[in-house]
Amino acid sequence: MNKEALLQTNIDPLLNYFNRIIPINSEEARLVTGLFKPRLFRKRQFILQEGDVCTHFYFVVRGCLRMYKIDEKGSTHILQFAVENYWINDLGSFHGVKPSSLNIDALEDTVVLQITRDDLIALYIQAPKFDRIFRVLLENSFIRLQQRLLQNISSTGEERYQSFLDLYPHLVNRLSQVQIAAFLGITPEFLSRLRNRRSRATKT
C-alpha cells in the first residue's frame, strides 16, 4: 500500500466501534478524527520492541498484529493477536511511561489508527464520554485475560485449541501453526499431531 492509499484510510471503523459502546455525536466524532492518526506497518515491522516505551494505543483497521514475549531460552510466548476492530498496546508501559517487556510486530501489512498518551488524555478532558468508553474497553480486555488465564491453568492443550477455534475462527487460516501453538502454550509438534488426529476423526 502506498502513502496515498494509506491517507485514504477511513475513520468509520473506529467511529462505529465507539458507537457500539456509547453513541457519540458529530463534535465527538470530529475530535476522534483529529486525534487518531493512520499509520501503515509492513509485514514483520516492529510496532514496539522490548525495552522501548509503548507510546501509542493502536486500533487495527486492517491486517494482523501480535504481542509477545521471548523468554531466556528463546521461546516465543504470544499474549495477543489483533486483527480488524481489535485494540493492542502494552498497558503497563503506556500508562506507566516505562520500558516494555513485550514486543509487538506485524504479521501482515497492517493499517492502524493510533493515538498518543497525551492525545488520549486530551480526548478524555474534551469529551468525558471517552473516559467511560475506554473504561469499558479495558474492562472487557481484563475479563478476556482472566478467562484465558483460568483456561491455561485448568484446561488441556486440546481443550485450549478447541476454545481457540470457537472464539477465533476468523484467525485460523491467517496464522501459522507455530504462531497458534505459541499462543496456546503448546509445541507446534503437539498441535500438528492434534490436527492430524482431528482430521482422521472427521473422515471416519
UniProtKB/TrEMBL annotation:
Stored SMART domains: cNMP (SM00100)
List each copy of the Cyclic nucleotide-binding domain by range.
20-120
One Pfam annotation reads cNMP_binding
Q: Which InterPro entries does the UniProt record give? A: cNMP-bd_dom, cNMP-bd_dom_sf, Env_Response_Regulators, RmlC-like_jellyroll
Name any one GO molecular function.
DNA-binding transcription factor activity
Cellular component aspect of the GO annotation: cytosol
Tell me the PROSITE patterns matching this sequence: CNMP_BINDING_3
* PANTHER family reported for this sequence: CRP FAMILY TRANSCRIPTIONAL REGULATORY PROTEIN, CYCLIC NUCLEOTIDE-BINDING DOMAIN PROTEIN
Descriptive protein name: Crp/Fnr family transcriptional regulator
Look up and give the organism this protein is from. Panacibacter microcysteis
